[in-house]
Amino acid sequence: MMKRNLFVFALLATSSVVFGQAVITDGTSSFGWTAASALSGAANRTGTGGGGSNLYSAFGSPDQSFQEWWWYRVNGVNNREFALSTQANAPVVNGNSMTLSYREPEGFTSTLVYTINNVAGVARVTGTNFIKNEGNSALDFSFFNYLDYDMGGTAGGDSASMLSGNPALRMRITDATALINAEYRALDADAYQIGAFATVRGLLTDADIDNFNNSGLPFGPGDFTGGVQWNFTLDPGQEIALQTTRTLNPVPEPATLAALAMGAAALIRRRRK
What is the domain range of residue 148? Predict the structure, then answer.
């Protein structure tokens, strides 16, 4: 699949789904998928189309995201990873939040709830995956959240570093030419893996079992892709919530940075007097 450079010049807020789209907005920031085919379909279950191309734009910036989606494996049942792809209902979009519902053949449901908010100059998207065992036997899961950032709207020049480990695994993704940077957080994840496009996605789409191995950071500059993994068991009727948070943060202009530095220096001088 060819990567694309997509610049978002105008994004319209909506309280209904059009042609299966699932896009949420808050002010001039948006997140979601602009094609119904990105969110379901047999081809997406094992191919590279899981989640399709999505957008993540903050404060009128170019699109910073190429792909984001959820993959899973039921250990002892599946001999490879699969993308969530069997939609149980049409997406429900209401302003700055949306709900996507899936019922997969292994006997579980997955309900994705995404919310976007502009808070204190930061565009924050919280994604929560509610996974419930609807069957009669315990299910042993490995679940993955995959993301591919194209910072600055380009498929290269990205760098990434680890900010902290569990309980909130946090990493920062930047591009030296971009006027915005990103932070990604996964709560209580068991592992992560980072690599240049399309290394990490290849682990999820190939026809064997793979696990992330806590490698790849620091990364770049290059074409960033990465993901996190959770491992857990659900008894019949039991539910778990997996949560990720991603933010886009404007990078201060040089003049602003200089002013901040001067202010800090002045404060230090005052304290020394």
Answer: 22-272
Distance, CA of 94 to CA of 99 (rounded, Å): 9
pLDDT tens, residue by residue, 65-123: 999 999 999 999 999 999 999 999 999 999 999 999 999 999 999 999 999 999 888 99
Strand arrangement of the beta sheet that strand 29-33 belongs to: 22-26, 29-33, 54-57
Structural domain includes residue 90: yes
The verdict on pTM exceeding 0.90 is: no
Which CATH number is 37's domain given? 2.70.98.40
What the block records as the tokens of 134 is 């609807």
Number of domains making up the chain: 1
CA distance 168 to 213: 17
CA–CA gap between residue 112 and residue 127 (Å, rounded): 7
